[in-house]
Each structure stands twice: as structure tokens, then as C-alpha cells.
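Researcher: Structure prediction, please.
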Amino acid sequence: MFKKVLCLLFLSLFIVSCGDDALETTEVSTKWLTQMPLSDFSISIPASWWVIEDVERILPKPSDGNIELAVTSKEIKAWFSNNMLILSDTLNTFTTSKEFSMLNNVGASKDYLEYTKLDSKEIIFTDEEVSILYIFEAKYNMETPKLKFLQTAHVCNQNKAFLFTIALSTEIKDTSKYEALIKTFKCK
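Model: Predicted structure follows.
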């Protein structure tokens, strides 16, 4: 019995160490992330991504809220790079992070084209705030390819909601490292 356990342990360590991405394991490392302290919050982003500086000129103005942070991967495949957008909105009534995330998902399911929900699950941020993470595939419009999205929300100080959207290629199956990225968000 001991030999079987030892062999199984060795085999699993071998398989994990031979993978080309250490983040494929169930324990997700955040060593690949760089801390990004901003005025109202902090979050870690991939070290290989860059911040989009002139968002007002480059990105369309959101219908609600403000763009707080836009980052994108330097790697472009098929005219697309993985990216993350954080929007903020001032709340007029008390809303929890979970409620804001659920409400946003209802809107996303109507606003995006070919919306297909893949998963929804509880997410706990670094500051212990609990929300719901939605993972779905959809298209922005008829011209864009179908993408995989991760969306959730975090309410800070009971009056400001932050909405996270990570857009990925549909080729990415394991989203755990992007979930780990979102969890690093912390209100100031």
C-alpha cells in the first residue's frame, strides 16, 4: 500500500512539474502577477500585460459608470488579446457585491449576442468580500468573434460598485489563473 501511495505521489509531482504552465494545478499561484495600487483600490495584474493609458480616446464610453482600469495582454492572436476592464459606478441604494453581480449578469445575458452561460460560482476576494463570478461565452456584436468572459462585482464602502470583465479567447479552457487575478482586488 505504501509503495502505491509513494508511486502515485511521485507520478503526480512529475506530471505537475512537466506541465508548461505551473498554473494548471488546482493550487493557483499568483507569482506571475504584479501589484497595481490605484486611488480607490488595488489589484494585481499579469506582469506581461500593460495598462491602456488613454482610455477615453481608445475605448468607447460605457453607458453606465466610469472606466477605472483597462489592461491587455501584449500577445495578440487572431487580432485579439486577452484583456481586463474594471468599471465603477456610484450606488444610490445599498447593494451587496453578490446582488450587483447578479443584476449585471441579467443585463449581460440580454446585451451580448449568442450569450451562453458556462458557469457561476462564489468568489471570495482578498479583503474577504463575497460575490458571484459568471463565466460565459458571447459576442460583443456581429463583427466580433465569440469570446469567453469572466464577470463579477465588488462593492466598496457600501457606495461604489466595481465591475470586472475579463475577455479571453474561447480556446482557454482553464480560467483558474484569471479567477486568482480577480480575487486580488482590494478596496482602499
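Model: The domain at 29-187 is CATH 3.40.1000.10 (Protein Transport Mog1p; Chain A).
Researcher: Thanks, that helps.
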